[in-house]
Amino acid sequence: MQYFLPPVAIDQAGTFQIDESWF
Q: For 1-23, what is the HEC assignment?
């Protein structure tokens, strides 16, 4: 499967880290 999503990383604590340059 391939997911076409913005560059969003989720660390093991469940924190979302969004690359705002995508927007």
A: CCCCCCCEEECCCCCEEECHHHC
pLDDT tens by residue, 1-23: 565 666 777 778 878 777 777 66
b vs e for 1-23, b when ≥16 Cβ sit within 10 Å of the residue's Cβ? eeeeeeeeeeeeeeeeeeeeeee
First vs last C-alpha separation in the chain: 24
Q: Cα Rg for the chain, rounded, in angstroms?
A: 10
pTM: 0.23
